[in-house]
Write a structure and sequence with these properties.
The complex is a heterodimer.
Chain A lengths: L12 E4 L2 E9 L5 E2 L14 E5 L3 E9 L18 E7 L3 E7 L12 E11 L5 E9 L3
Parallel strand pairs in A: 7-9
Antiparallel strand pairs in A: 1-2, 2-3, 2-4, 5-6, 5-8, 6-7, 8-9
Chain B lengths: L3 E12 L6 H16 L9 E4 L10 H4 L6 E3 L6 H14 L5 E9 L16 H5 L5 H16 L4 H15 L12 H6 L2 E3 L2 E2 L8 E10 L11 E10 L11 E2 L7 H13 L8 E4 L4 H10 L8 H6 L16 H5 L3 H17 L13 E8 L3 E8 L1
Parallel strand pairs in B: 2-3, 2-4, 10-11
Antiparallel strand pairs in B: 1-7, 1-8, 4-7, 5-6, 8-12, 11-12
Helix pairs in contact in B: 3-12, 6-9
Classes of the chains: A mainly beta, B alpha/beta.
The complex binds zinc ion.
Chain lengths: 140, 381
């Protein structure tokens, strides 16, 4: 459970006073960031990664729509579709791939400010929603 | 060191061939390539080959002949064919062997590829939440590219139109009907800004090539094509690749940039000397981006080149003259070798209805794919 909600993988998240954030790694040697956590640094090839809380806000870097229902291993359900996907730049850290709640191309513009939320993408066996992360636009 | 020549080419038609296994298509291509070179499988001193989902290439010897040759399987995603060719190039160039065969083949189920994230070292959450989808990557990559270079999406339609037009002129292509621009634009949106007709589909097919030491080439053919440069590269920190839950804020060139530069350098030939190019067009945005990443033009220059018809068969820089992946589909193991097959046809002057005019002398091929790899070749006659 993260922020009182079931998620696809709690290890992806950290709880902060401002709300859920993503858990990443930062290289103690060169400062490179990754998401999710990993042991090795893809930039300097070192192996001294430490956990880091990634920024909850950033800007839209690129985006696209999802025009068909994916095959397995996708487990999402129609109640939570359509969805869009994007990369959101978290300044000074990394550019994270994410679902978007907004799917109208007219309302998406590269550079727009965004914020992380938890969003349901399927229900579990007892009909309770399972959440993943998504970004939504915020007024700047 | 020996130079390397291609003296035999063979293909099993791409598309869908019900009732014929991928392995059978590979055997068909291998026999055609051997016949083209006037050789038998027993003359082959080595084999390299692979498929993604149609079986192990080395088992083809049960059909082709149990001659004891070293046959090495290559499994390198979209670069499987290109990697097999590079391995063959090295085997001949080093003096280890004089003559051998490379075989690429595949037979994929219909619809978009579905990949297990674990194969790429990613947690199950990535697939479950609907992000392990190649078509999304292409949409986001071209969306960003159009933004950075201030290009309009119209070129994405024109490229698809050209692909189907070229396919209609190629008897070996899968999709052989021209499709008007309006229909391409009105097709279902798969991943904005790319519609269904702007993507290639997984398919079937096989290609084989017989290669030998260049100084022996004329024993087998009076029209050898020389492999002047071949290079393979993987991604660097900061490049934008498929199945990436995150990207670095420091940006780096795609592996295409380094692989093509290395192939041109090895050949001692400049991109401006290319007469015919086959470049990876998994979707039309890929062709647009790769035109510049390979050095064939500058970033941003594509819009005018495409709109003016420069990349058509009769243009100044003909690109994907056989219809590319879009008109031929993508059997992963065979796709890279299809490009070489097409360039050999073009350089021999054997491409018939889709022949580039003016006796092309220099051909270039480029494959690109998951998880951030590229293989390029420079060919001359
Ligand atoms: Zn580091």
């Amino acid at each position: 459970m993260i922020a009182g909600r079931t998620t696809v993988d709690d290890a992806l998240f950290v709880e902060t006073p401002e709300g859920p954030a993503l858990r990443g790694s930062r290289c103690a040697g060169c400062g490179a960031h990754t998401f999710p956590v990993q042991d090795g640094c893809p930039r300097c090839t070192g192996s001294s990664m430490v956990d880091v809380t990634l920024a909850r806000t950033g800007t839209l870097w690129s985006w696209t729509s999802q025009g068909f229902t994916p095959k397995a291993p996708y487990t999402g359900t129609a109640a939570y579709e359509p969805y869009a996907v994007a990369y959101v730049e978290l300044p000074g850290q990394l550019i994270v791939e994410t679902r978007l709640v907004e799917t109208d191309p007219e309302k998406l513009e590269i550079g727009m400010p965004m914020e992380l939320v938890l969003t349901p993408f399927r229900d579990d066996g007892s009909g309770e929603p399972v959440h993943t992360f998504a970004f939504v636009g915020v007024s700047s | 060191m020996s130079e390397v020549a291609i003296v035999g080419i063979g293909m099993h038609r791409f598309g869908r061939t019900e009732g014929v296994s991928g392995r059978a298509q590979a055997v068909h291509a291998a026999r055609a390539a051997l016949a083209d070179a006037g050789l038998r499988f027993s003359d082959m001193r080595f084999g390299f080959g692979g498929s993604h989902s149609a079986g192990d290439a080395d088992t083809l010897v049960s059909e082709l002949g149990l001659t004891g040759l070293p046959f090495i399987n290559v499994a390198n995603g979209c670069a499987t064919g290109g990697s097999a060719l590079i391995a063959a190039d090295a085997a001949i160039r080093s003096g280890q062997h004089d003559v051998g065969i490379v075989i690429g083949f595949d037979k994929h189920p219909r619809g978009a590829f579905n990949t297990d994230p674990a194969v790429h070292g990613i947690g199950p959450w990535y697939g479950e939440t609907g992000m392990m989808i190649t078509t999304q990557f292409f949409g986001m990559k071209i969306q960003r590219y159009l933004h950075e270079h201030d290009l309009k999406p119209g070129a994405l339609t024109t490229i698809a139109e050209k692909a189907f037009r070229n396919g209609a002129r190629n008897p070996m292509a899968w999709r052989r009907t021209a499709i008007p621009a309006a229909e391409i634009e009105a097709a279902p949106m798969i991943s904005h800004p790319l519609t269904q007709y702007m993507y290639c589909s997984p398919a079937e097919g096989a290609v084989a090539l017989v290669l030998c030491r260049a100084d022996k080439a004329r024993e087998y053919t009076d029209r050898p094509v020389f492999l002047q440069g071949a290079a393979f590269r993987s991604r660097r920190y900061g490049s934008f690749e498929v199945f990436s839950p995150w990207l670095a804020t420091d940006r780096a060139d795609s592996p295409t940039v380094e692989a093509s530069a290395a192939a041109f350098a090895a050949a001692g030939i400049a991109p401006s000397e290319v007469d015919v190019a086959q470049i990876q067009d998994t979707e039309t945005g890929a062709e647009l981006m790769h035109m510049a990443e390979t050095g064939l033009c500058a970033h941003g220059e594509q819009e005018d080149l495409i709109a003016s018809g420069a990349t058509a068969i009769e243009g100044r820089l003909p690109v994907n003259t056989d219809g590319g992946c879009i008109a031929n589909g993508e059997p992963i193991g065979a796709s890279g070798l299809r490009q070489v097959y097409e360039n050999v046809l073009q350089l021999r002057g054997d491409a018939g209805e889709h022949q580039v005019p003016g006796d092309p002398r220099v051909g270039f091929t480029h494959v690109y794919g998951a998880p951030g790899i590229s293989a390029c070749t420079v060919l001359t006659r």
